[in-house]
Amino acid sequence: MEKIIEFFFPPRCAFCGRLGKSPCDNCKKNIKFISGNTCQKCGIPIGDTTLLFCPSCLRENFAFERVFPVFYYEGVVRRGVHLFKYRGFYQNAITFSRLMAKKIIEAGINADIITFVPTSYERFLQRGFNHSSLLAKNIGKILKIPTVDLLARVGFTKPFYNLSRQERQKEIKGKIELKKGYENIIKDKRVILVDDIFTTGATANECSKVLLKNGAKCVFVSVLAITKLTR
């Protein structure tokens, strides 16, 4: 996948779109990696505290083990994701997936399968691709772990951007299912679920519930970025 993208698309900065190396020198100054003391569930920085979880995760009962975000969803990162998802900058998947894989390696996560959050048929037609699938396939290649298209969306879901945490949970409930014939493939397997942004955790949680219900041993979530604590 990476070689195909590099052949058809010139190298550009994944964060601003300028031709050249990624990230470019200007964007590199403004990129803030998530580091330090982080929530043991969603991975967001929680500062100098003895608590293991952020306020949001203390309220929730997430099915996944832990989220591994690379950045906050803001500034140049937000712009880069927009270019990737809505402007057809497929080459951004190369930079983004390398950073996501590095985060997984640093965390020492050993997994058997990588999968990704499914997109609806309507949104697939609009964009022409599933951005999470591109990220997952390249992460799988880097980590030498098979990437399997396990999940499907059923029914229609409203766009999430203007919905609250509770509304998102209600909207996505029952809208994810395991594709037929994959039950034996994931039985007792450690799964990495890939998505681009973690906002409230509603979608990642629903996907994780489906995987666990169908026999997965545990689910880790790899995302490029996470929103700040407004959830």
**Distinct helical segment count:** 10
Number of strands: 6
Output the helix-strand order.
HHHEHHEHHEHEHEHE
Structural class: alpha/beta
- What is the C-level CATH assignment of the domain at 32-70 and 109-226? Alpha Beta
Shape estimate: globular
Using only C-alpha atoms, the radius of gyration works out to 17 Å
What's the rounded overall pLDDT mean?
89
Instruction: Give the strand content.
Output: 15-25%
CATH architecture annotation name of the domain at 32-70 and 109-226: 3-Layer(aba) Sandwich
Largest sheet: 4 strands, parallel
How far apart the termini lie comes to 35 Å
CATH topology of the domain at 32-70 and 109-226: Rossmann fold
Pfam families: DZR_2, Pribosyltran
Protein name: Phosphoribosyltransferase
Keywords: Glycosyltransferase, Transferase
GO molecular function: glycosyltransferase activity
